[in-house]
Amino acid sequence: GAGVSQSPSNKVTEKGKDVELRCDPISGHTALYWYRQSLGQGLEFLIYFQGNSAPDKSGLPSDRFSAERTGGSVSTLTIQRTQQEDSAVYLCASSQAGTSASPLHFGNGTRLTVT
Amino acid sequence: AQSVTQLDSHVSVSEGTPVLLRCNYSSSYSPSLFWYVQHPNKGLQLLLKYTSAATLVKGINGFEAEFKKSETSFHLTKPSAHMSDAAEYFCVVRNNTDKLIFGTGTRLQVFP
Predict the structure, then answer these.
(1) Model confidence over B23-78: pLDDT tens digits?
(2) What span, in angstroms and rounded, lies between the C-alpha atoms of B99 and B82?
(3) B6 vs chain A: nearest CA distance in angstroms?
(4) Omega before A8 within 30 of 0, i.e. cis
(5) A–B CB contacts, 8 A cutoff, strictly below
(6) Chain B contact probe: residue of A106, A110, A111 with most B CBs at under 10 A
(7) To the nearest whole angstrom, how far is the Cα of A80 from the nearest Cα of chain B?
């Protein structure tokens, strides 16, 4: 596709369940980011993948959160044993690497609601 | 470490009047700076970017921003607000490890 694709667009889950959120970046983009946006808040950095380098996981809020990027393309963000405070919109973005001014292209996000 | 500060959480203007959304950055070297806009229930969209080629950067929808190193600022402006400009605006700095750091956002309201 032409843009960053995220699925599902909405996810409602019960507290304690695991969830997987998927991101399909723009073809050829080597950098992939996950951000979280809680209601009325700014964007909180979660994790960043750049090519084959080790990911920057410095923003993951707890060990219940993990992410992987297979084959340098699709990425999955997994939240284990979900809590109500995990409710937020999870945004994925990709960009071309190598140019410091290359912009991020964002997906429309996955709205996660933990009941 | 790089960071951005958006000085106003909310800005309200009348349609047809100028818009000023303030952003100050902190960086130990020449930064890459961006403004993104988020309309209600829509994704984030790039408004403009500073690439060090020119200090006055023009973006989409009539917005522009001026990079002022002496003031460590990158304020977003528009001469005349339109109702459709009502949205959340984010100032962003890219650090030396390629991570984008977002400001807390400024919500722009435009009154008729």
Answers:
(1) 999 887 778 899 999 998 788 899 999 877 788 999 999 999 999 999 999 999 99
(2) 32
(3) 11
(4) yes
(5) 52
(6) A106
(7) 25
Q: Report chain B's terminal Cα–Cα distance, integer Å.
A: 41
C-alpha to C-alpha distance for A42 and B102, rounded to whole angstroms: 7
Q: Among A6-15, A85-94, B95-104, whose mean pLDDT is lowest? A: B95-104
| Residue B61 CB partners (closer than 8 Å, separation 6+) | B47, B78, B82, B84, B85
Average pLDDT, chain B: 91
Which tops the pLDDT comparison, B95 or A17?
A17
Q: Is B1 helix (H, G, I), strand (E, B) or coil?
A: coil
Q: Identify the band that residue A100 occupies on the pLDDT scale cut at 50, 70 and 90.
A: low
A13 Cβ neighbours under 8 A, 6+ residues apart? A19, A82, A112, A113, A114, A115
Lookup: tokens for A42? 């700014």
Q: Cβ of A100 and B98 within 8 Å? A: yes
* DSSP states of B5-17: EES-SEEEEETTS
β-sheet bridge partners, residue B75: B66
Helix (H, G, I), strand (E, B) or coil at B63: coil
Q: What is the pLDDT of residue B27?
A: 80
Among B4, B9, B7, which Cα is nearest to B109's? B9
Task: Name which residue leads in pLDDT, A53 or B110.
Answer: B110
